[in-house]
Amino acid sequence: MAIQKGVILFVHGFGSSSKCWKPLLDLLKNDERITPGYEFVTWDYPTSWINLNLMGRIPRLQELARGLGDRIDSPDLRGRELTLVGHSQGGLVIQSWIAAVLQRGEGAQLKDVRQVIFFATPSHGSNMAMSLRLLFSTFFTNPQEVTLRVLSPDVSDIRNVIRERVVATTNDGANSWRIPIHAFCGLQDGIVLEDSARGTFDSVFSVRGNHFTILRPENRDDDRYREFVELLLDPGGHTQRFEIDDYRTVLRVEPRDNEKVAVQSERNPRTVTYDNYATMNRAVRFANRNRCKNPFVIRYKTQKNGYVVGHTAGSPNIAPPEALGRWEDGGDEYEYDFIPESGMEYALNVEIYKGYDAGQREAHIHLKDHSYYRHMEYTLDLSAYLDAGYRVTRGPSFYLHPQDEPHGEMCNARPAEEPLPPVASDPKGTWKWELKELQQGIVDIVWDVARPQASSRAHSG
């Protein structure tokens, strides 16, 4: 089934309308790199300098934010990956909506927001023509103009929430959510100065243009367009979430005839007798947009009484002494820790002795919520069993539980979800599955094998 297109939702600024996006949208709609993956949606809201309708009024920022929330939750947008783009006050409307969601303790509502992009948003206000605006305000009350002032208390509160619960947060929860935010500053902008446009954000682009021409790129080579498109093609970039371009796991399991391996362990020296030998290679490539520099961990632990040997590639292993000590002491667990570089690939290849015994032929993998996984691929290779005369008597079945949960009883029970079909299979004994655009979960691959003669005797008895 084809993945539904993502949505780019454009929110205009003060005293403006969705027409301000036309130069940018004209380029986007003719860009074959963008149109296959995105649908473009604009949102208009009431805004003006003067309310000439005696029966009406100009809505406040928080009211606009609620209106934006209603649009995001509308049937045609609900559940779709969302990029929010705001110009000037439009960026404040977006921030106000995010802050309100988090202050209500409803952070999970933000799970579909892939990233937020601001053009010339006055996160610290604007002093442009302040004397005239103050004089004007003695005759006409405009709550939207008030929020655009420097030291606006309403915007200050919103800014603090965004800084603490979005930009700097290390986890997703009811009151915080890791959303990548990028800010564009116009080098000739005299309305929203660079310091205000930068706000509390750590991903900032300074481009040509004033407050209005920043939205009017001339062509694809214009830096105002080029930088924006790069964010669409390579999204993400939160400093506390890994951005993973590709994560591949290949598990090959082979039969053995009760072979033995000596485990040289200080605390648990032993001889492991095994009738199966496996290799699991897990290779992860980080996106160019990845900005998270926390240690990334790839870990493998065998089932009871097994033994593993790990081989790493891409970077030295900086796992803490206690993690390395677990392998030295027991030989049944190996951990690879590293600091990822953008665009680089790292791998852990584990040799597994006695990892997939009869009754325990399953791979159980936790996908931590510290990453955005753009593409994942799992391959199970049982061709050595078929070559040796075995039959596959169960599956293989691939399950995805959508939430990562601590190890416990759930790890010993089969998920209730329906198994996902493979994207490819080979009668010689290999199966492949793919996952896309994932933030966390638990993967289970379950199978079983038996010799034909053993199966026949069981049937005749």
Which second-level CATH architecture of the largest domain applies? 3-Layer(aba) Sandwich
Give the topology string: H per helix, E per strand. EHEHEHEHHHEHEHEEEEHEEEEHEEEEH
- Number of helical regions: 11
Identify low-pLDDT runs: 51-56, 127-140, 454-461
CATH superfamily of the largest domain: Alpha/Beta hydrolase fold, catalytic domain
Sheet with the most strands?
7 strands, mixed
Q: What would the average pLDDT be, to the nearest integer?
A: 88
Report the sheet-strand fraction.
25-35%
Q: What gross morphology would you assign?
A: elongated
Question: What is the third-level CATH name, the topology of the largest domain?
Answer: Rossmann fold
Distance between the termini: 45 Å
- Helix fraction? 10-25%
Helix/strand structural class: alpha/beta
The largest beta-sheet arranges its strands as: 10-12-8-7-14-17-16
Please compute the radius of gyration using only Cα atoms: 28 Å
Q: Please give the domain count.
A: 2
